[in-house]
Amino acid sequence: MTFAPATASSEQEVPAPPEGLTPVPWRPVALIAAAMTVGLLLLATRHGYHIDELYTRVASRHLAWGYVDQPPLVALVGKVETALFGDSLLAFRLVPALLAAIAVVLAPVIARELGAGRRAQILAAFMAFASGLVMYTGHIMGTNNWDELSWITSSWLLIRLVRTRDTRLWWAIGVVVGVGLTAKYLLVLLLLCLGAGLLVFGPRTVFRTWRFPAAIGVATVIASPVLIWQMTHGMPQLEMEAALSTALASLSRSSFLPMQLLLIGLFLNPVWIAGLVALLRRPEWRAYRFVGWAYLLMVVVLLVIGGQGAYTTALQYVLLVAGAVVVDRWARTVRRLWVIGGLTGLNAVLCAVLLLPTLPINTYADNPVLSKLAIVQFDQAGWPELTRQVSAVYRSLPSDEQAHTVIYGNHYGQAGAIDKWGPKYGLPQSYSGHNSYADYGRPGDDKTTVITIGVDKEQFGKLFQSCEDRGEYRNDLPVSDNGQKFMVCRGPLKPWSQLWEQLRWIGFQCPYTAEAITATSTKECD
Predict the structure, then answer these.
(1) Pair 406, 429: CB distance under 8 Å
(2) Which string of DSSP letters, residue by residue, matches 129-190?
(3) Which among 46, 76, 318, 476 would be 20 to 30 A from 190, CA to CA?
(4) How far apart are CA 96 and CA 134, in angstroms?
(5) Both ends of the chain: CA-CA distance in Å?
(6) Distance CA 130, CA 146 (A)
(7) Measured distance CA(250)–CA(513) in Å, rounded
């Protein structure tokens, strides 16, 4: 595939698609996408809410232009979902399941831009269906749903812009980027890497249009409320990123390569790697080599700054689509086609077992391999039991004291669990100073007794006249909060308005231990 040099008139006239560009086979693609959504919804209510979903659920009742640790889009979507379909886990996970279907559809659309035929496009859709990226982001309601979709959509539009030289696509890119920034700021990393790839390896002509800076303006206008909120609140996202870097620095570097090999799926690694090599070496894909170099640049940047290996996944998805085109050309015999189909099927099964609640939770806990690899399952378990055990502490208090009691969770998952299941046990309101949960309210001065979950006894005890241990959270499952201490503290030494500033903290919970890490910490997660 070759391109004629851009001219002044090329911005006014849209080139016709190359001859032989195969239309997307919408019927089979739609069936694959629908199967993804149906499968995700069938599994949606197993195990339970993820820790981040408990946080988002409460955030959806406290809408703002921004939060300490994320932009506002996910909370807004959660608000709409619960308003339309009720306060249930199935309702909460409806949008992620639909977004997963869109991600599946984008695979053959991207493959088409790379010259894929009908079979290669269908193969790309199947591989997207079988990928860990689509399964994970389609199951759990969070910032990753919109972030990954904005990455994939931006990459598709940029590839299409390079192919067609239709600079009007900059408008669409501007809209996608603007909306994406209202979900997660990580999109900036993709833009920088793709932009660097285009500037160094070309084609640089796509930037030589007034529509490029106009697209930047569109994205800025759409995201401006979010950006203004950050600036007017002291850029808390920077403090949050510092805490993440502190907590995960050594863990991110040591696990970076394994994450690259696990995120799309073990059995599809040869496919996306083949896509990367082809984008860098194939003469007919010369115009798209910036995508491959963008991935390599992103890997280098993340290794230098200690970023997480998961950040590359959406770009690996694009490489997977390119690999599907390569594999389709290789699989010209029935035997080879069966090999590709078998590997894709195995990848789907492996990813479904690890990332989706396909097995009983006790099966994950009892299996020594799954208990280490399927950690996401345990972040969706144990929260109702935590609430039940807190209720036992609450019921042990005298009835006249219960009227002046509140519950304090050290992190937002604990407070969110009490908010969700506490009414079932007649529990009072829950609070937390963690991230933006601290802005959702503080106890009134008539609240003189606090049941705490997982706080530092030495630090918290300085704020009250007395604190006594009341046992600890026990669960047979390997949940991260297992062993967190309960306390009953009485007699706050200052009004809650003053205490609250001492209880606020911005940071991150270490996986498996629920240990709090802040931007000023020197320790890391093990």
Answers:
(1) yes
(2) HH-HHHHHHHHS-SHHHHHHHHHHHHHHHHHHHHHH--TTHHHHHHHHHHHHHTT-TTHHHH
(3) 76
(4) 10
(5) 50
(6) 19
(7) 16
